[in-house]
UniProtKB/TrEMBL annotation:
Keywords: Signal
Biological source species: Magnetospirillum sulfuroxidans
InterPro entries per UniProt: DctP_fam, TRAP_DctP_sf
Family matches, as Pfam families: DctP (PF03480)
Signal sequence bounds: 1-25
Record-given protein name: TRAP transporter substrate-binding protein
Source species, domain of life: Bacteria
Claim: Signal is one of the keywords in the record: yes
Length: 345
């Protein structure tokens, strides 16, 4: 074979292999958006380690660029649509910020459903698979999680009975927690999470319902002094459901091996790991947030009126869901069954 022929073959091989090499070396950057500050658990304990994992498992072909505190624009209730539209590739948000749009995600937000964030988060993923795939068909869910036990915090008075709620303006994250507050006797106020510190400092709200972990991050403990917990041996007063979802077109555009990386780091185990991070964060956050406060714990023996409110809200919600074409009672029953099942593991 002549030198000229060998040269032509080599050149042809390089021409064929070059695009392949470039494709393999191409770095895919995923825009990841959320509404918390960059120091929050959501970014430091969950998103940053998750992003590091997918970078490692993809040999750095896939990386994240995280945009905290709504840096891509818009408001927290718009995050889910931003993922659907491709403004962000991945978002972490509360489906409940868009009231009524994702009804199957609400069932775990009923009072006295969860005993831990880890078991509740595993249940949340299972409930999505069983009931919620149509609700979330515009995006690709990667995880569903709940936070650890939610409590009541205010700057007006201690809350020991339902009568103490009367006249208090309290902020809650979702429509079901707002309904719960109204049934307990308070006046719910709708305030976006980033605006809550300012609202409390100006008296627009007297307090809020939140888990301990969030409070120091937002410096809310500096504006309230009375905290009410329910008996820790009982299911928590409330929780909120979060979701991490991905733009479907972005996922579809990935090579098959990178899809496998995303899939391997999604689902029930990822959801449960997020819940576990919430559970583990609570003790230290409580030490910071409760310092100098009056903390009252409602004993199980006094929880009857509180549980009655929760039971009635569950009945009302099941009827509402059934009227919308869902099997509301089946979702309530499944939520209770799953949270009890996973709590024992």
């Amino acid at each position: 074979m002549s030198k000229r022929s060998i040269g032509m073959i080599a050149a042809t091989a390089l021409t064929v292999l070059a695009p392949l090499h470039m494709a393999q070396a191409e770095e895919i950057v995923l825009k990841v958006a959320h509404f918390w500050p960059p120091t929050a658990l959501s970014q430091k304990t969950v998103l940053e380690p998750w992003c590091a994992k997918i970078a490692e498992q993809s040999q750095n072909r896939m990386k994240c660029q995280i945009y905290p505190a709504m840096q891509l624009g818009g408001t927290p209730p718009q995050l889910m649509q931003q993922a659907a539209d491709g403004i962000a590739d991945i978002v972490w948000t509360l489906p409940g910020y868009t009231a009524g749009r994702y009804p199957t995600a609400e069932v775990l937000e009923l009072p006295f459903m969860t005993t831990s964030a880890e078991s509740g988060s595993r249940a949340a993923w299972n409930l999505y698979e069983r009931f919620g795939q149509k609700d979330f068909e515009a995006v690709k869910p990667l995880a569903f999680n709940v936070h650890d036990a939610g409590h009541v915090h205010n700057n007006v008075r201690p809350i020991k009975t339902l009568a103490d709620f009367k006249g208090l303006k309290l902020r809650a994250p979702t429509r079901l927690t707002n309904k719960m507050l109204a049934m307990l006797g308070a006046t719910p106020v709708a305030i976006p999470m980033p605006s809550l510190p300012d609202a409390v400092s100006k008296g627009v709200a007297d307090g809020y319902v939140l888990p301990w972990e969030v409070i120091p991050t937002m410096k809310l403990h500096e504006m309230t002094k009375y905290d009410t917990e329910t008996d820790p041996a009982q299911p928590s007063l409330y929780t909120a459901v979060f979701s991490i979802v991905m733009n479907k077109a972005k996922y579809a555009s990935l090579p098959d091996d990178l899809k496998k990386v995303i899939d391997a780091n999604s689902g029930a185990d990822f959801s449960a790991s997020i819940g576990k991070a919430w559970d583990e964060s609570g003790t230290m956050a409580r030490k910071i947030a409760a310092e100098g406060h009056q903390v009252d714990v409602i004993p199980a023996a006094d929880m009857g009126p509180w549980r009655k409110v929760g039971d009635q809200l569950a009945v009302d919600w099941a009827k509402e869901m059934t009227a919308k074409g869902y099997d509301g009672q089946a979702m309530v029953d499944a939520a209770r069954e799953l949270t009890a099942k996973y709590a024992t593991k």
